Amino acid sequence: MQLNELLHGFGHQVLHGDTSTVISAPPTLDAHRVTPGAVYFAVPGHQEGGPEGVARAVELGAAAVLVEGRDTCAPADGVCVVRVPDTRVAASAVASRYYGEPGRSMDVVAVTGTNGKTSVSYMVESVLRIAGGARVGVIGTSGSRIGDVRVPMPRSVLTTPESPDLQYLLGHMRDRDTARVVLEATSMALLTHRVDDAHIDLGVFTNLTQDHLDDHGSMENYAGAKLRLFQGLCRRAVANIDDPMGAVIQRLMPGATTTYALDTEADYRARDITMDAVGSRFTVHHRGRSYPAEIPVPGRFSVANALATLATCHLLGHDLELLVGALRHMPPVPGRFERHVTAGGTSVIVDYAHSPDSLEKILTAIRSFATARVITVFGCGGDRDTTKRAAMGEIAGRLSDLCVLTSDNPRGEAPEAILDQIAPGVAATGTPFERIADRRRAIASALAAAGPDDIVLVAGKGSEPHQIVGDELIPFSDMAVVRELAPRAPAVSAAMSALGG
To answer: What is the pTM of this model?
Structure first.
C-alpha cells in the first residue's frame, strides 16, 4: 500500500521524498522495532523513539517517517518525510488503514473506568463463550488472547497497546474469525488516541474514583479523558448510573445509552443482594421481568460488574435468561478476588485493588464474611499519584487487623520513601503494621502471622507477571509466591473450606 493511500484525507505536508512510497511493513512508534518498508511515527516524548529515534528508524530501513510541529530529520535516499499536525492521531488512522480497518469486521467492546475494566472484560468473554459458544478476543491488563490462545506480542506494561499494536491485534483476531473483541480502554489510551480508529460498537463505563492524578493533574482532567470514549469513539454506551458520570454519558449519547445500577432506577437493576465467602446472589430487574442470579465472587462491586456484563452481552443480541444462567458458571478472573487456602487453613485472596476505592470495596466485602482476623499486604506504585498513599493506609488500617506495608511497582522511587507516605495513614487508625519493602518477604511474613480462620489479602498487583523496579520488569507473581510459600508457613488446624481452593 502506498503512503498517500494511508494518508488520504489526512492533513499533511511532504518535507522530503514522494508519498507514492510503498509501505510494506507494519507501522510503529518504536524506533527499535522498525523493519524494512515500515512507516515510523516520531511521537514527541515517546520512550521508545520520538524524534530522537529517527536516525535509528532510517538505519533499520524505514520507508517513511512522520513528524509533527517543528520536528524534522535529515533527508535520506528513498525515505519519505511527512509533517502531520499530531503524530499520535496519524498513527491511529494510518495503522487502522494498513491492517484494513479490522474493527469494522467485528463487534468491538471497549471497557473504561477506574475499577472493573479487567473483570468486566473477562466476564463478558466468559459469558459469551458459555451462553453462545462465541469466539471472543480479549485485549487488556493480562495480555491479548483469542479464547485460551495467547497472541504473542512484545513485552509491555501498557494495558491498552499503542495504536499500531492495537490495530495489529484487531487484524490478527479478525483473520482468525473472531466475531467479538473486548478491550480495556485506559484513560491514557483515550487521551493519547490509541483507540481512535478501533471502530468501537459498545463503550462500557464502570466508575470513576481517585487514581492516575499523576498523569492527569486533576479529577476533572481524568474524567475528561474517560469521556472521550463517549464523544464519538463508540456507537452505543453502557453506563453505571450509580456514578455521577453515568448521567453525563447519557447527556453525551442521548438515546444510545443503556444504564445499570445497584441503588438507582436503571435499565438493568440488581436488588436483594446477599453474599458470603463463596459468592453473591441477587435479582436482576429488566423491563418488568426479574431473574434470580448468582456469581462465584463476593462483593457489591462484583454484582455491579455482572450487571455491566449482562447489559453488554444482551445488547450484542444474546438472550438475557441464558446470560444470567451463564454467570453462575464463570471461571475466576485471574488476580481478581483470586483465592487460595493453605494446608493450615488460612485463606489467601489476591486482588488487583490499587486505588483507595477498590481497596475499600474489597476489604469491605471480605469483612462481610470474615470470622477471624484480616491481614492486608499492600503498597502503592512508584512514580504515580502520591496523594492516595496515606488514604490507602487509612483504609487498610481501618478495615484490617494487621497490615504489612510493602512494595508494589516502585519504578523509579525508593521503596522505603513510598512506605513513609503510606505509614501515617495506617498509624492514625491504631492498627498494628509492619514495613517490609521486599514483597516476597512481606507475603511470607503475613502467611506466618495468619491463623487457620484468618484471611490474608495480597492487594495491588493481581495477575501481573512482573514487578517494575527502575526500568526493569522483574518476573513476580503474587499468587505463585503465595502457593510456593504457603507450605512453609507454620501448620495450623482445620481449613476454611467455605472459601474453596
So the answer is: 0.84
